């Protein structure tokens, strides 16, 4: 069975999508439609901006979404049996399986990105990658710290990203290094995504999602919050809202998709990050780029 997966924040690079824009008329039309919907020329920032331009959450998220969805739309043999996306990528996945229209999803992604950036500016915070420890040890250390710090992304066996206040992250990194982490690396992100610090953004996103038409998808989406498949529009909406303050259960998502028959994973979007994570979970499956 063929699964399509869509990356999240961190996969961006300057020049992403430029070749698509120049060589494909349908792609160009979609990019220009996005410029119109967003109210600024995101294509200028994607193609010729700086790394710093692209790192702004309000730019990063719609940029990755656009690149991912437009790539998938050009595939002649696009017939997904199941889809999943990492964090922001869940919105790309929902366009791919027809639960959301391109236009509606872009508006939601823009709203989500702006709300998250605002929450980050209100309370500065960060994230860190922890390599080489079992999930339970990371969870235990985070739970014992008297500041905000939580597991945010279960990326692959032995790789977890934690999220929280600067003080909470510093304490956790120190303790996790003492517990034997091979590496503890602070990430260049705008704030503590998938943590309680995103609560203000959650309220904004919830109102926007409630006002948006969701359709019954053509195949299941495996959602970040519970790593389980869904084709129920109401359930999908609830999980999308909860995702903002809940961890991305990517390791379990991949294992569940494989358990349900996925043997080929196509990553649609910038980079190959998800292919690497999937291979760490199971080396026997086929991974490829769109």
Overview of the molecule:
The chain has 290 residues and is α/β, with parallel strands linked by helices. It has 2 domains: 2-121 and 196-289, Malonyl-Coenzyme A Acyl Carrier Protein, domain 2 (3-Layer(aba) Sandwich); 125-186, 2-Layer Sandwich (Alpha-Beta Plaits), CATH 3.30.70. Helix content is 49%, strand content 16%. It contains 13 helices and 10 strands. It has helices spanning 18-23, 25-38, 42-48, 51-55, 57-73, 89-96, 102-122, 135-143, 166-178, 199-210, 233-243, 250-259, 273-281, and strands spanning 2-6, 82-85, 125-131, 149-156, 159-165, 183-186, 221-222, 229-230, 264-267, 286-289. The protein has a 6-stranded mixed sheet, with helices on both faces. A 4-stranded antiparallel sheet has the order 4-5-3-6. Helix 2 packs antiparallel against helix 5, helix 5 (57-73) runs antiparallel to helix 7 (102-122) and helix 7 packs antiparallel against helix 10. The mean pLDDT is 94.
């Amino acid at each position: 069975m063929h699964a399509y997966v869509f990356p999240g924040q961190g996969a961006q690079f300057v020049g992403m999508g430029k070749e698509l824009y120049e060589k494909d008329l349908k792609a160009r039309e979609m990019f220009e439609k996005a410029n119109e919907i967003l109210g600024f020329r995101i294509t200028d920032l994607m193609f010729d901006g700086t790394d710093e331009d692209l790192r702004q959450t309000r730019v990063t998220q719609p940029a990755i979404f656009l690149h991912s969805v437009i790539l998938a739309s050009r595939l002649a043999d696009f017939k997904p049996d199941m889809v999943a996306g990492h964090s922001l990528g869940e919105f790309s996945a929902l366009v791919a399986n027809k639960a959301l229209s391109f236009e509606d999803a872009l508006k939601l992604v823009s709203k989500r990105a702006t709300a998250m950036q605002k929450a980050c500016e209100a309370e500065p915070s960060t994230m860190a990658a922890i390599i080489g420890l079992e999930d339970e040890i990371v969870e235990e250390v985070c739970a014992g710290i008297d500041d905000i710090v939580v597991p945010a992304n279960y990326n692959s066996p032995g790789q977890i990203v934690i999220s929280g206040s600067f003080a909470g992250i510093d304490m956790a990194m120190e303790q996790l290094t003492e517990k034997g982490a091979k590496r503890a690396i602070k990430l260049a992100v705008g704030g503590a995504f998938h943590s309680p610090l995103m609560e203000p953004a959650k309220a904004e996103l919830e109102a926007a999602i409630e006002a948006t038409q969701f359709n019954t998808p053509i195949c299941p989406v495996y959602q970040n919050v519970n790593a389980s498949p869904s084709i129920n529009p109401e359930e999908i909406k609830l999980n999308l809202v909860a995702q903002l303050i809940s961890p991305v259960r990517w390791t379990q998502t991949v294992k569940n998709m494989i358990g349900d028959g996925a043997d080929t994973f196509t990553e649609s979007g910038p980079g190959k990050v998800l292919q690497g994570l999937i291979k760490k979970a199971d080396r026997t499956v086929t991974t490829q780029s769109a």
